[in-house]
Amino acid sequence: MSVAVLGAGAFGTALAISLAGNGFVTLWARSAEHAIHMENSRENSARLPNVPLPPAISVTSDIKDVEAADIVLLAVPMQKLRAALTEHASNLAGKTLVVCCKGIELTTGLGPISVVRQTIPNASPALLTGPSFADDIARGLPTALTLACGDADLGKVLQTELTTANLRLYRTTDVIGAELGGALKNVIAIGCGAAIGAGLGDSARAALLTRGFAEMQRFALMRGAKTDTLMGLSGLGDLVLTCSSELSRNYRFGLCLGQNRPFDTHTTVEGVATARAMAEIAVAEGLDMPISVTVADLSHGAYSVPQAIQSLLNRPLKEE
Ligand SMILES: NC(=O)C1=CN([C@@H]2O[C@H](COP(=O)(O)OP(=O)(O)OC[C@H]3O[C@@H](n4cnc5c(N)ncnc54)[C@H](O)[C@@H]3O)[C@@H](O)[C@H]2O)C=CC1
Ligand SMILES: O=C(CO)COP(=O)(O)O
User: Fold this and answer.
1) Is 185 assigned a ligand-binding role in the annotation?
2) Does 80 participate in catalysis according to the annotation?
3) Which of 137, 236, 250, 251, when mutated, tests ligand 2's pocket best, judged by the most ligand atoms within 8 Å of its CB?
4) Are residues 184 and 115 in the same domain?
5) pTM score, two decimals?
6) pLDDT per residue over 71-102, tens digit each?
7) Last residue within a domain, chosen from 173, 201, 227
8) What ipTM goes with this model?
9) Could you give the CA distance from residue 76 to residue 79 in angstroms, rounded to a whole number?
10) 82: Cβ below 6 Å to ligand 2?
11) Residues 255, 265: contact at Cβ < 8 Å?
């Protein structure tokens, strides 16, 4: 089956590089200038420098080239997904659409699969998520991800089509669990980065990660996720990676908050909008999510780091 990747940022380019080991891949960039530059230089110098694009990748800005593919991977930021799908709805109608973004839509509280269902109702949606940095995938380092698809048969097909020499896919039909694990871990990673940035130490990070995971489970189970999914690659696996590596943009954003330093506003940091969406839902549903709500306040400047620490430490004592 033919594959196209819509979105030529860090992750889209890395996935295209990995998939090129299986056969021809179309990589679509919305900017014609960017596409021509990548096609000629055989590199995405803006987002994934120093990794050559294999000959099996064709870079284009013509959406008709994406229309020709059977499977389209959507590698755009969560808050841009609806706009991208709406703009290209007629080209993507009826296709198998594998969403690769992690987050909750701020304006609706929906995850990426629901956004696909609303914008292109006759598409077959799936989700690719889990612990992986674009740079690691692009360099061919071993990686394991979750392929979530509500249609079990289609999930098996996609697992086979999208597994590559170094990228091993596990499948699940628990789309909600996979979506929420990937979305919520970014919020906790911001909190862990802030703790390390403020000099609170590794013990504080372990506490935030563990209690943050409890919040992730509380939120996801309320929305119908399965515990096993949260304990797997797309939940705990990605949480551990993102809370412990400076390769993570969410973690680095948190580090800057903790150190009171500015952060590049053009960098994709999914956890900021997701924290806000999650905090709003938690309040509406009466869920106790103190770390996530604190991260939302911290990320938007409503709290300073010392205030955030005090508010978490002063909470009433309770059972674990
Ligand atoms: N970079 C990484 O290591 C990983 C990223 N992801 C997820 O992948 C998603 C994308 O992240 P990155 O590629 O890293 O971000 P990025 O910032 O490197 O690239 C985003 C790309 O989306 C494009 N884009 C934005 N709005 C668009 C629109 N309306 N239509 C078409 N294209 C549009 C931008 O031009 C850019 O090329 C995020 O949800 C992220 O959480 C998941 C796993 C790893
Ligand atoms: O999702 C990721 C790792 O699995 C990438 O994390 P960042 O978006 O924080 O860079």
Assistant:
1) yes
2) no
3) 250
4) no
5) 0.97
6) 999 999 999 999 999 999 999 999 999 999 99
7) 173
8) 0.99
9) 8
10) no
11) no
